Amino acid sequence: MISRNDPCWCGSGQKWKKCHYPKENPTSVVVNQALQYKKQYGILLKTETQIDGIRRACKLAAHILREACLAAKEGVTTNEINDLVVKLHKEAGAIPAPLGYGEPPFPKATCTSLNDVICHGIPNDIPLKSGDFLNIDVTSILNGYYGDCSAMVAIGKIDPEKKRVMETSHECLMRSIAILKPGVLIHEIGDIIDEYAGSHGCSVVDQFVGHGVGINFHESPQIPHHLNELKIPLAEGMTFTIEPMINGGKHQATIDPIDGWTARTIDGHPSAQWEHTLLITSTGHEILTLI
Ligand code: MF3
Ligand code: CO
Ligand code: CO
Hints:
By secondary structure, this protein is α+β, with helices and mostly antiparallel strands.
């Protein structure tokens, strides 16, 4: 049997691999990479059809998040924000992913994380008051596809520490998004976030991470925001979140033993988070949860 380094059968004098060796066509390159990422990392590289569905789910989540943020005002309760999120999903023929998710089943349609709550806050009947700030996290399922995003809202005037963590977490998200393209290693995201947060007097939560998303709520890979050694290269067709949780004090979290969800800072200092769902394209990235 002729091997790659033998002279080509056509008589050109060149090696077979440089001459008539069958080339992979672009479709088989894409398929091979998808199979490799699935096998090696458990990562689903999405097809054009899937990306289309995920893009729609992301636009809806972003739209609902914007409405929820506009509704968050002094005197309004987080349960009222939750009701709005339920209504907007219903109107769009979509499902809010958090409701009933996980163990114990998450009891509401959205997460509202106030002041020292890092993430997974459960909406309640306490009215928002001036000086509060909160993260609202919306994940929508539309035609089976998932879009996940979150943002901060300040109620009235917030103190300088809250202002600092709110701005720092947003900057951490946008700076880490800016480097995304095929070949970038996952740990480079955490490198940027850790550096920026540290140099602004903030700490980075390591107990919760970003994640693959699109076909399922939480897919492989994990996207840590803290320093890490994950050397997985980003590839075209990956869809995942970055959602840095940035604390004013210590980085550690405690989980409420009664509800099993609410994650708070251990020292009572404030925490802030922003989240986008991202797509890796052939040349860079697309922020799917921008309106
Ligand atoms: N939306 C959150 C995230 O960004 C997850 C919330 S889990 C829930 O990954 F059960 F609380 F909804
Ligand atoms: Co997420
Ligand atoms: Co989210």
